Each structure stands twice: as structure tokens, then as C-alpha cells.
Amino acid sequence: MHADGGIRPPYLEIARFLEAGGQAALEQKRREAEVLFRRIGVTFAVYTEGGDPERLIPFDVIPRILSRMEWERLSQGLEQRVRALNAFLADVYGPQEIIKAGRIPADLVLRNEGYLPQMVGFTPPGGVYTVISGIDLVRTGPDQFYVLEDNCRTPSGVSYMLENREAMLRLFPEAFTRHRIAPVSHYPEELLETLKSIAPSSCQGEPCVVVLTPGPYNSAYYEHSFLADEMGVELVEGADLFVRDKVVYMRTTAGPRRVDVIYRRIDDEYLDPEAFRPDSALGVAGLMEAYRAGNVALANAPGAGIADDKAVYPFVPEMVRFYLKEEPILQNVPTFMCEREADREHVLANLDKLVVKLARGSGGYGMLVGPHATEEQRAEFADRIRARPGDYIAQPTLALSTVPTLCEGKVASRHVDLRPFILFGRSIRMVPGGLTRVALREGSLVVNSSQGGGTKDTWVLDDPPKPGQAQSAGPRGLAQTMDGMTQSMPPLPPLPDAANDPGRGFR
Length: 507
Hints:
Blueprint: H1 12-21, H2 23-40, E1 43-45, E2 54-56, E3 59-67, H3 68-92, H4 97-100, H5 106-110, E4 132-141, E5 144-151, H6 158-171, H7 187-197, E6 209-212, H8 221-231, E7 234-236, E8 241-244, E9 247-250, E10 257-258, E11 261-264, H9 287-292, E12 297-299, H10 316-324, E13 331-332, E14 336-337, H11 341-349, E15 354-358, E16 368-369, H12 375-387, E17 392-396, E18 402-407, E19 410-419, E20 421-424, E21 428-430, E22 435-439, E23 453-461, E24 471-472, E25 479-482, E26 485-488
Parallel strand pairs: 3-23, 5-13, 6-7, 6-11, 11-12
Antiparallel strand pairs: 1-2, 4-5, 4-20, 8-9, 9-10, 14-17, 15-16, 15-17, 18-19, 19-22, 20-21, 22-23, 24-25, 25-26
Helix pairs in contact: 2-6, 3-10
């Protein structure tokens, strides 16, 4: 809604659609979506709370909608930011000009645990470090978007973006006749083309691409297998690969096959027991040697995590100015670095107004939302900050936007963020929208699935179709609109009982 209570134009048609259907019908669709997700196996895993670790991430059936104009501005800012982050990585592992210029403290980078000396002096194939990025955005007003954090290591969640759209097409095919929604189903094709584009110069013929997973006990394993299947490439574990003469090979029934590009979903420290943790059973011995020899490409590059470190985050706007000679299109959230004495004193004096985060944390863990915390919790965090100030940053609690969400059978306002996925190879590609995450608890600002959050389908509305113009849901779409008529797939076969189909892990 606008401030005056009027419905914003992108939501006009969906508001009429929802009003006509009623909340009882929405609740029925929510239950159908839950059974559908469990049947497919779209789950995530939480191993720290006991009980069955496999969980269904809640899916809200009311979409989050952006206009084409809003998305165009966001996409320009995202492309600018990803280019700056890649330039920063090339610089800090190379000439270190931004450090020499005094634009970022040397210790913040060179003594950071995310900075890998093994990458110094080496340029990845294609010169790209962050091939796949997930940039988290929050909205505070009609034209005000802020970057909450940059995910440059192994960002997850894109499978939910795709499965959410698939579910909406199954559940609400008629809604797609009333909107011209930009498709997202081509993401796997875009991802594969991007991965092929960074193949090393030593590659002969069609590049061999694989997805490297830690295995089925990883919380994001569903996504690993999903993306490998959608791209038509092999899903491998460390034991399926070996290095000989600085070349990576995959074991197959027809004998060894050379691998050119590895989309790795394994953290840096487990990638290669010869270069990092010697006790790692997940990686491939000699992988870094093959990488540095230019015989294989890794996405994302080891050491890319220094670019999304929360202590480095405040300097990203300066990276845009330094490397691109441009003003940032997307702004950062104001950030206080607790290792600085003045910032630390301000944070300790205002814990009831701030959000405090671990500088190298993720998943919503190790975090204090000051306005919603107790006096005891704030006192405990104050002690933590005094003991290890360099581990923490703090930000003001923004007035995050809310969207209509189905909660306990009723439509209510809940806070959201947005994670678009940006692909960087020979060019930058992104599908319109991204993964909308929603904080399902009333008043909560934490959207992480491991902390009780859910997801929504994200619609970017194109201009309305002209009379007689067809709208396609895309190559993976299950409904197609032709001249205002919907042709849907036949009904799904009977679904198994949800309790007997637990699915696989996803975060």
C-alpha cells in the first residue's frame, strides 16, 4: 500500500484476485504447497536443535511483486556492485592498490581469516572470482533499497526461487493469465553457460562441468543435486575426483574423464587437504595445484569470502568509487565496527536500538536484535563485544518493508528481504527477481530458514501484454497463457502421505 492507504499499482490485480478467492482458499493452497514440496523433497536441515533435522521451509503462497522499473534500477546496482567486488578481489590478491591508497585498512584484509595466501599472485581463469553471487537487499521505502550483505562464497537458495515459481504455476495458473510475469526458469541454462565461459584456456572442446558437493548430509544437498540435474552435469563428491599431473579427472565407468570447471559447494578449508585442512575427507588432494596451473576453473574462487566479510562490507561503496570511478547505485546500511573504540562505545551505549552481528557469522546465528532482546541478553552481548570487539559489527534497526503473508490462516504483514542471484562470466547475467525470504514471526526481522523464516515467489511484472499477445511461463513452466486462455498440465498423480516422504536437506 501507499502511505495514503491506496494499493500500489503492481499489487492491484493480485489484490482483486486474493479478495475474490478468500483466505480459506489460500489456506487450502498453502496445504497443497506443503504436500507438493514434501513430495519433491524440497527440505533443509538444522543439525543444532535435536530431533529430526529435516524441515520443510515454509512457503507463502502470496507473491512478492516488483515493477519492471524497480527491477531495472536494482539490476543496474547489482551489476555495479558485483563488478566492484571482483575488482577488489583481483586487487587484494594482486597489487593491493586500494590498501596502498589508504582506502581500506591493511590489517582488515591481510589478517582476515577469509584472506587466503594461496591465492596471492594468481588470477583465476577469465579473471572472475565471484562467478555466482547472492546479494541480500532490504527495502525501507518506495524507492529505498539497501544492501544488507554480499554473499560471494557459496550462496544458496536459488533452487527455492525456481521451485517457488513452479509451485505457484501449479497452484494458481489463473493468476498467471492476469499478469505478465518475467520468467526465471532459464536460470539453470544461464548458470551452465556462465560456468562454461570461465573454462581454462587449456580446455579442449566442450568444457566438462561438475557440481562438487560435500554429500547428502549437507544442509543444502537438495540444491546441489537439483542444480546438477537441471544443468545436465554430474554431481560429484571429493572421492569421485582425482588429480594427476596437475589435471583434475572424474572417475567414470568408461575410465577417467578430464574436468574443466568445478562448481564447488564446499567451503575453502575443506577443498584440498594438501593446501588447507589435512584432515578433510571432503575435498580433492592436489586440487589447488591444478587450479594454480590453469588446468581447472573453480566457481567461486577460493578466498572470495574476504569480499563478503561483514567487517569489509562498510568499504564496498568505496570500492565502487575506487575501481569503477562511479557513485554507488545501491547503498549500504550504516555500520559500526566494534573494533574501533568510538564505534564500540556507541554500540555499547545503544544496544537497545541496534542489531549486532558476528562479522563472520551466517544463518542468523550469533546475532542480537537489540529492541527485541532482554536486558540479560544485551548484557551478555556487551561482555562478548568487550572481550572480542573485532568479531562484531552493529547496524541500526531499519524500518523494513512488509508484504502480505498468510499466517495461521490469516493475511498479515511480515518483514522480507530479497536475494537476487548474479552470474559473472564473460558477461553478467541475472534472472528477474530472486528469492524473497520472509520473517514469519510477528515483528521479527530474522528471515533465515534456520531461524523460523520462510520464502515467497518473487514476481517482476513486465508491461501488460498487448491484445492477442501470448505469455509463456518459460521452459520449465507448467502453464502457458494463449490469448487469455490457460492450458495447464493434467492433474498431478496422488501425492504420498507427507509423513512418509521426508525429502532431503536444504538451508
